[in-house]
């Protein structure tokens, strides 16, 4: 096993460097978007790389703080009151993930409809974009870090607060955002694809933003970017000061029910996002290696426990970093672990350089990330898949944006289940009327109790003095309640209305003589 890792170092170390360059601005940007300390995003990236990278059996997946959890983090910090209380929820979420892994719950992710997952991610993308517009304009006030949904508790809307940012525009910060966004978009073009595989556009955008701010804007008073519009990572000058950078959970809140609700929410969303990402990475792996989902949940759980204990944000497997790892030709998990080591070294050795990064350049990265989560092609794809796909998708997006992520996913799931039941309700049998012959009711392969109401309604609608053929030839399963309803119709109701009944296929395996009819 060791020889495999040593043999691939020539691929994995350069790939780890590329992933580090992608992850650094994202860790800072997600901290900003979450309203959390910048150091918390770095901690999550380090733990995601070193701890989860070592424990996971996925060779290419990369974990860290995820944009998909931003809305939950903002809401949770606001609800719980302190960052220390939120960290306790992260630790508990990690413990729940470990339990889920040992209970072999990795299969649960397959039961979430893709339209709801895509709706959730698109809704998160829209929230991220809305929340980053003030930072893009240089209006860096804490109030926008609480903008988790459209309707606020006081009845006002987020858009009303958002528009106030246009009254406080910082010209220098806004120009930096446009420059950074232009670079990121340019690096997505086919002409620069080869370069972007080596040097990610987000990193180039941050470097150029720092150079423009330091070398050009500082000499122009109207464009100069003030300190409050820059990253503010703590600078440690001694070992004791390094220890002081870490924040620890407030275990005195362990009995607070809100803590447990937040923990369960993080568990659900982080686990689903991780399992979906792992599935995608396995499909893209050139060597087609298989990741054990249950082991992945345990690894993620231990990672989240570790992150929460020392002040880090919650962690998931992240498709952006994992894709960068794949594109950089990584072969084993060494690249993931190496990127975590580089993240830790950067915050210890070059914090003063990090503190020259304009917040508006990170806002540009997050705006583009939000766009990729909610880009028009996703909506177009969902609409092309039919109403049973796009209706739950649209409802999920709207609910996530208007209310919050948990309510949005719940409403989306409810709509998705409704359309599944509706389709099942309609497709339980084939019903054909004939002007000069008997009505035919051909039952489907499986007829569950969910079809009972529709079959009963259809039998009730059979006209008096007519005839009907009920065909179970193709059926392999018919629910007992459905058989009881058919027997009741054949033995009693049809005789009262002079309806002639012919049964086909029931003698094969469904004996109606053994089914007691309902009492009258």
TrEMBL record:
Subcellular compartments: Membrane
Domain SLC26A/SulP transporter stretches: 9-384
Top-level lineage group: Bacteria
Matching InterPro entries: SLC26A/SulP_dom (IPR011547), SLC26A/SulP_fam (IPR001902)
Pfam families with a match to the protein in the record: Sulfate_transp
Keywords, sorted A to Z: Membrane, Transmembrane, Transmembrane helix
Any one Gene Ontology cellular component term annotated for this protein: membrane
Transmembrane helix keyword on record: yes
Listed GO biological process terms: transmembrane transport
Transmembrane segments: 12-32, 38-55, 62-80, 86-112, 119-137, 169-187, 199-217, 259-281, 302-320, 332-350, 357-374, 394-421
Bilayer disposition of the protein: Multi-pass membrane protein
Keyword Transport attached: no
Xref: PANTHER family: SULFATE TRANSPORTER
Protein name: Sulphate transporter
Organism: Leadbetterella byssophila (strain DSM 17132 / JCM 16389 / KACC 11308 / NBRC 106382 / 4M15)
